[in-house]
Amino acid sequence: MKRRDFIAALAASPVIAEAADQDRASSTPPTTTKPLTITLLGTGTPAPSLTRQSSGYVIDVGGDLIVWDHGPGAHQRLIESGYRSIDTTHAFFTHLHYDHCMEYGRLVLQRWDQGADRIPDLNVYGPPPLRRMTEQLFGEDGIYGPDIRARVEHRSSLDVFEARGGKLPRRRPAPQVTEIHAGSVVEGNGWKVTVGHAQHVQPYLECLALRLDTKEGSVCYTGDSGPSDTIVELAKGCDVLIHMNHYFSGTEPTPAYRAACGNHRDNAIIAKRAGVKTLVLTHLLAQIDLPGIREQIVHEIQEVFDGKVVWGEDLMRLGLSGSRVANIETRQG
Ligand SMILES: [Zn+2]
Question: Measured in angstroms, how far is the CA atom of residue 71 from the centroid of ligand 1?
Fold first, then answer.
């Protein structure tokens, strides 16, 4: 291949067109109502699985694309779902267990590399020590410090950067971090996220739940949480509640395990008390992800909760329009 062809091939990367689309999207507010779309990226646990990656969700809200948690495997699912890192505008972390945040590094670095300084820095929210984690990952003395320095200074990396439309000097990645707590409110382009308290592994980690409200509907995500009045309060009247459903009721080894992780009968009561319309079960261990057991869990939840119960799957997509789940797509179509 000739030099001219090689440079042209780099410049023809789909990133250029996408970045231009992003520019247009950010400069022009959406004029038509767009359904609120929630895609489940990872519905598994820390345990290795080929069918369920660790925790991750992406919510398409008009002009913004919001990631909720980004555990191992979630970024691959983001790409499989048709989005790319450069499409994301905001990322929230409910807590810093690794199965909820291990691909933070991949999200930031891939977005920075592919975005070639043509998209704004990612807005990132989560409990402390998120700011310290960010510095320890991307700072000059951080884990990726030498890599970032090489990409900012070595001529070969700058060739690729310029071919993608970047203008020198190249900036380092600079995620805009805001540390949040129960009671925090974050607002964006036609959406609001309210942060609540999750009952999980305190005092070792601060654990949060998230509620999103838009014109098209409302979604609450517990993060990891056992049964808690604070979840009921946060999720009150939500169209969709995405709830950790780790294990089968009665099999918990200790009361502490139940308090931190909940079980399917606990979740039925929480959904009923909160008065949500749809309950999406996620964070599913392989032990309950079996024919017969799945149906038993859904049936027993429906004996208590009279809304819709959805057994979550990776890459499942829920579309909300006019405060109702208008459609659910799965990978199998
Ligand atoms: Zn956790």
Answer: 11
